[in-house]
Amino acid sequence: MAGAGATYLFGTYSKAIKQTLGYTQTTLNLLGFFKDLGSNIGVFSGLIAEVTPTWFVLLSGAATNFVGYFMIWLAVTNKITKPKVWQMCLYICIGANSQNFANTGVLVTCLNNFPESRGIMLGLLKGFTGLSGAFMTQVYLAVYGNDSKSLLLLIGWFPAAISIFFVATIRPMKVVRGYNEIRVFYHFLYVALSIAFFSMVVTILQKQFKFTHAEYVASAATISCLLLIPLLIAIREELFLWNQKKQPVKPPTAISIEKLPLEEPKAPSLPPSSPIQIKETPKPKSSCCANICMTPDRGDDYGILQALFSIDMLLILIATFCGLGTNLTAVDNMGQIGESLGYPPLTISTFVSLISIWNFCGRVFAGFVSEILLEKLSFPRPLMIAAVLLLSSIGHLFIAFPRPGTLYIASVIVGFCYGAQLTLLYTVISELFGLKHYATLFNCGQLASPLGSYVFNVRVSGRLYDKEALKQLAQKGMTRDSVKELTCIGHQCYKLPFIILAAVALFGATSTLILVMRTRKFYKGDIYKKFREEAKAAETEMTLASRL
C-alpha cells in the first residue's frame, strides 16, 4: 500500500508535463481529471476480484501501473513523438487505475480476515497509501535527484516491483480470534506515526537547507528501514503463534464432550388429521443481481444492484461528489496555486508532501478514532463524514483568501480531510451493505469522486484560471499565441473557484446529516455482533476438533 499512491504526486510532475508538451491549464486539468477517473473507476478490479484469486488482481495492477506511467515518461522525455491529448489522457488513466487493483486485492482480503476491526484496518492500510507520496518523493530525490521527469519513471517501475515482490503474502487466512489483534494493530500505528513524523521533519529540513545527494540517500534509506519494521512485527507475532500451537493441548475443563447431545431433539408428532404443516422459511440469499425491491436489513449482505439503488448509497455518492471531488481539485492544483502566489518550486513540493503526510494522518485518525467512538459512544461514522466536510470547506476558504502562511494550513486541512473521508467512505459501505460484494461496492461508491473532479477541476477551476490568465495577457497587450504556457499570477487566479468549492463542501456536509438520521438506529446497536458469533462458533468447533 505504500506504493499505491502515485496519483498523489500529480502536483509534483504536472508542471513538467505542462511545460514539455505546452498544455494550457484547462488541458492539464483535463489530464488531472482522467488521472482521478482512472484512480476511482475500480469497478473492473472489483468484478475481476469476484472471480479471480488475489494474486491475479495484484499482478494485473502491477502491469497497468508500469504501462501507463512508462508511456507518460517516454512522452515527457521526447523519446516518442508528442502524443495527442486523448492519448496522454488514456496513459494516465491506465496508470492511475492500477491503484484500484492494489486497493481491491489488499483491502477486501484484510477486511474479510479482520471483520471486527475494519475501521482500524482500513485506517492503517489507507494510511500507508497516504504516506506513499512522501515516501516515493524521498526515494526519487535519492535515486534521480530533483528531476520531476524522472519521477514519472520511478512511479512506473517502483510500485509494480513492490506488488510483484509481496504478491504471495496477500491471501485469505483463518485468524485466531482469541488473540489480541488490536495490540498488534497499535504497534503498526506507532510505526506509521513514526514514518509520518520523520517524513514531515525531513520535508521541512529540505525546504530550509539545500541537501546533498548523500543526505537524500540517507533520508530515503531511513524511511525505507522504518517501512520494514511492520514486517518484523508480523514475523514476531507469527513466531509467537507458532510456538503457541506447539504447546501440548490441555485436558478439557469447561467443555465436556460426554454432555454434548448426540442428536437433535425431535419435534412432537402431529395427528394425521391435523391440517397444520411446519415449513422452514428459506434464508434470503444475496446475489449480484438480487431483487432490488427486497432490501435486506442494514449490515446484512446486499446484492450489488440492491446497494446501488438504495437511498443510503445515493447519499454516500453525494457526500463523495462534494467532498472528494473538491479536495481532489485542491490537491491537483496545489502546484499551480503555489506558483500563482509566488512560491518557489521547492516550497511547492513542500505543499505536496504536506498533503501526503496529513492525508495519512486523516486516514489513520478516521479509522482508529471512529472505531473508538463507535465502540464507546455509539457515535455514527456518517456524522464524522459531515464534520470532515465542514472542515474541508474551511480549508478551501484559506486558499480563496490567502494570507502569508495560510497555504501551509490549507495543505494540512485538505490532505487530512481527503484521507479521513476515504477511510470513512470505505468503512461505512462495508457496515451498511455487508462484505459479500464489498470488492465491487466500495469501488462503485467512489465513482462520484472523478465526476466531482471533472466538474470542479476542469469545468470550474481550469476555465476560471485560464480566463483570468487571458485577462492578464490582454492587460500586457499580448495574445494567447504569443506565449507557450498560459500562466496566471496573483491571488485572484483561484479566489472564485475555491469560494465555489467551499460552498459545495458545505452542501455536502448538510446532505450527509440525512444519512446520519437514517442510520442512527443501526449505529446504536451492536453492528459487529454477527461477526463475533460466527468467530466464536468457529473457534469452538476448532477446539472440539482438536480435542477429539
Automatic annotation (TrEMBL):
<keyword id="KW-1133">Transmembrane helix</keyword>
<feature type="domain" description="NFD4 C-terminal">
    <location>
        <begin position="303"/>
        <end position="523"/>
    </location>
</feature>
<feature type="transmembrane region" description="Helical">
    <location>
        <begin position="55"/>
        <end position="76"/>
    </location>
</feature>
<feature type="transmembrane region" description="Helical">
    <location>
        <begin position="216"/>
        <end position="235"/>
    </location>
</feature>
<dbReference type="GO" id="GO:0016020">
    <property type="term" value="C:membrane"/>
</dbReference>
<dbReference type="InterPro" id="IPR036259">
    <property type="entry name" value="MFS_trans_sf"/>
</dbReference>
<dbReference type="Pfam" id="PF23262">
    <property type="entry name" value="NFD4_C"/>
</dbReference>
<keyword id="KW-0472">Membrane</keyword>
<feature type="transmembrane region" description="Helical">
    <location>
        <begin position="382"/>
        <end position="401"/>
    </location>
</feature>
<feature type="transmembrane region" description="Helical">
    <location>
        <begin position="496"/>
        <end position="516"/>
    </location>
</feature>
<feature type="transmembrane region" description="Helical">
    <location>
        <begin position="184"/>
        <end position="204"/>
    </location>
</feature>
<feature type="transmembrane region" description="Helical">
    <location>
        <begin position="151"/>
        <end position="172"/>
    </location>
</feature>
<dbReference type="InterPro" id="IPR056555">
    <property type="entry name" value="NFD4_C"/>
</dbReference>
<feature type="transmembrane region" description="Helical">
    <location>
        <begin position="346"/>
        <end position="370"/>
    </location>
</feature>
<feature type="domain" description="Nodulin-like">
    <location>
        <begin position="2"/>
        <end position="235"/>
    </location>
</feature>
<protein>
    <submittedName>
        <fullName>Nuclear fusion defective</fullName>
    </submittedName>
</protein>
<feature type="transmembrane region" description="Helical">
    <location>
        <begin position="124"/>
        <end position="145"/>
    </location>
</feature>
<keyword id="KW-0812">Transmembrane</keyword>
<dbReference type="InterPro" id="IPR010658">
    <property type="entry name" value="Nodulin-like"/>
</dbReference>
<dbReference type="Pfam" id="PF06813">
    <property type="entry name" value="Nodulin-like"/>
</dbReference>
<feature type="transmembrane region" description="Helical">
    <location>
        <begin position="407"/>
        <end position="426"/>
    </location>
</feature>
<feature type="transmembrane region" description="Helical">
    <location>
        <begin position="304"/>
        <end position="326"/>
    </location>
</feature>
